[in-house]
Amino acid sequence: MVDSLKKPAFEEMRDGVKIPAKETILTPRFYTTDFDEMARMDISPNEDELRAILEEFRADYNRHHFVRDEQFEQSWDHVDGETRRLFVEFLERSCTAEFSGFLLYKELSRKLKGKNPVLAECFALMSRDEARHAGFLNKAMSDFRLSLDLGFLTKSKKYTFFKPKFIFYATYLSEKIGYWRYITIYRHLEKNPQDCIYPIFRFFENWCQDENRHGDFFDALMKAQPSFLNDWKAKLWCRFFLLSVFATMFLNDIQRSGFYKAIGLDAREYDVYVIRKTNETAGRVFPVILDVDHPEFFSRLDTCTENNAKLAEIASSNKPKFLQFFQKLPLYLSNGWHLLRLYFLKPIDAASMEGAVR
């Protein structure tokens, strides 16, 4: 009876196996792309850098890192209630995102084998890293008596098609924002060990180095394709992906601020810092970045989070669906308007930046 009370209230497809979270615009996505176009890519303009990164992947600096130690061998029943639920959600979202990367990179390595051997091996080794991360996170979920059926996830998830250049924008930002998320949590808990409620956070320093190397690979790959970065369309798309990634993280994290509070962080302050650092880092490769210091930037995102809270409240009500739709519509339109205004804020020319991470 005590065990059942400590188990998070999630739906299960079978005992101990969680039904994956419902797909929404804010949940991690699975991607596919035009593999033939990827295979035809000429990497010669930046092949030396790509080969140097390949050597780092081959070195596999973290091959002995993701090993559970004695600190995991205990009961986690003291992490309960809302904190337990939010923590399981964090592990699931992180596991799903890492597994998404594994599937994409693995398929790219298979499709490019024999056609573009440098890229094929890079993707194969990145898929190795992502598989480790996903497996480690899924094992962590089992400490809370739940796990994901990754085989079921592979078959049941919808796959979003992106052309290669969009895959590059999205995955580069995903890896770099992952670096800043993990290293920021790690540094905070290093200074405040009393807030480390679970030992997985001790692995984040090495973990984020994998994310950083993966991001550097996409940086080098985009630089080998100048047309992806040097025209007016590239500037528009870079702004779109920056805003999409930042807004998604902000809306998700504020919605789950209790998780960050449990580890001693203010979710909004954390997100503002991570967004600023990721934006600066993107200036290494993107032709433009967002003006995140503009007074409107975070205030408009704040309004979107307030709208999302109202949307969740409406969705949880017992009102008829048609009535819910008409109540939600102004909030959806408001979010769209604020995000559109943010998109059209004057961007910053990365070439003129001072103080960017280079």
SSE blueprint:
Elements: H1 2-6, E1 12-14, E2 17-18, E3 30-32, H2 35-39, H3 47-59, H4 81-112, H5 117-142, H6 150-156, E4 159-161, H7 164-191, H8 204-223, H9 232-255, H10 257-262, H11 267-282, E5 288-289, H12 295-315, H13 321-343, E6 348-349
Parallel strand pairs: 3-4
Antiparallel strand pairs: 1-2, 5-6
Write a structural description.
By secondary structure, the protein is mainly alpha-helical. Helix content is 63%, strand content 4%. The protein contains 13 helices and six strands. The chain has helices spanning 2-6, 35-39, 47-59, 81-112, 117-142, 150-156, 164-191, 204-223, 232-255, 257-262, 267-282, 295-315, 321-343; strands at residues 12-14, 17-18, 30-32, 159-161, 288-289, 348-349. A two-stranded antiparallel ribbon has the order 1-2. Helix 3 (47-59) runs parallel beside helix 5 (117-142), helix 7 (164-191) crosses helix 9 and helix 9 (232-255) packs antiparallel against helix 11.
